[in-house]
Amino acid sequence: MSYNNILSTTQDGITTITINRPSKLNALNSETIQELHEAFNAANEDYDTKVIIIIGSGEKAFVAGADISEFADFDVAEGGRLAAEGQAKLFDFVANLRTPVIAAVNGFALGGGLELAMAAHFRVASDNAKMGLPEVSLGVIPGYGGTQRLPQLVGKGRAMELIMTAGMIDANQALQYGLVNHVTSLEELVPLVEKIAGKIKRNSPVAIGAAIAAINAGFEDGVNGFETEISEFGNCFGTEDFVEGTQAFLNKRKPVFEGK
Hints:
By secondary structure, this protein is an alpha/beta fold. It has 2 domains: 6-200, 2-enoyl-CoA Hydratase, Chain A, domain 1 (Alpha-Beta Complex), CATH 3.90.226; 205-250. It contains 10 helices and 10 strands. Strands 1-2-3-5-7-10 form a 6-stranded mixed β-sheet, with helices on both faces. A hairpin with a 2-residue loop joins strand 1 (6-11) and strand 2. Helix 1 (30-45) runs parallel beside helix 2, helix 2 (76-95) packs parallel to helix 3 (112-119) and helix 3 (112-119) crosses helix 4 (146-154). The model has no long low-confidence stretch (mean pLDDT 94).
């Protein structure tokens, strides 16, 4: 499938989706959001894809924000629709994929860019990364899940300060806050993310998907995460991966998971 604003390649079980608008610092416009939805959906349905990496092209930006020119003239109804459709099409969609998604944060991740990184299942940053949600400086608030995911990741007080000051933090502060899992050099960013992805893809894709669903359930209003865990745990017993994993353990050999 060909795209105008992104690239998608698959090698050795890893699909890398690259936001490719370097002249716009990879800003998210409606076309890019649609293309990302299609690329993530295709990767999630691809039997050979075990891990998805999302990254921005170039060295300056992961995603420097949303394309403000697209919505500067919106009214109340249009603004609400923009947030609802964006969350459903991309941000919530990514967060709830059963294929693990790693954000490789290279450079600026601001506004919708940080919201996309936070929708991924975890984040690795280059040491030149800068992160923030500057929306209040434009007279609006984060609308793609930022007010919900940032407090979950860094705590309410830190999220309040970051959002209200419209400030940025660097990669090391993001690591201290728990916003990213690792910080490395720009040159080592992709190799490190691929190394982590390699460890993930050795394990059962079915079990990983179940774990993602159970973890996410614990952050959903009105959902008992423990009950979801029990259900997903029980379902694992009906999979071929469970049989393979347990038999491999008992026979002291490495498992070969088929994702079934």
